[in-house]
Amino acid sequence: MSTQFDQIADKVLAGTPASEADALAVLQAPDFELMSIVAAAGRLRREHFGNTVKVNYLVNLKSGLCPENCNYCSQARGSEADILKYSYLSKDDAIAQAGAGLKGGASRVCMVSSGRGPSNKDIDKVVEMTEAIKDEYEGVEVCACLGLLKDGQAERLKAAGVDAYNHNINTAESNHDNIVQTHTYADRVDTIGKAKSAGLSPCSGLIAGLGESDEQLVEALFALKALESDSIPVNFLMPFDGTPYENTWELSPQRCLKILAMARFVCPDKEIRIAGGREMHLRSLQGQALHVANSIFLGDYLTSTGQDARDDLEMIRDNGFVILGQENAFNDGTFDEVFNAPRGGHAHAAATTTPCGSSAGSACGDGCGGCTALNPEAKAAEAAEAVDPHKPVIRRRGAGTEVPANA
Question: Residues forming the annotated binding site for [4Fe-4S] cluster?
Answer without folding.
Answer: 66, 70, 73
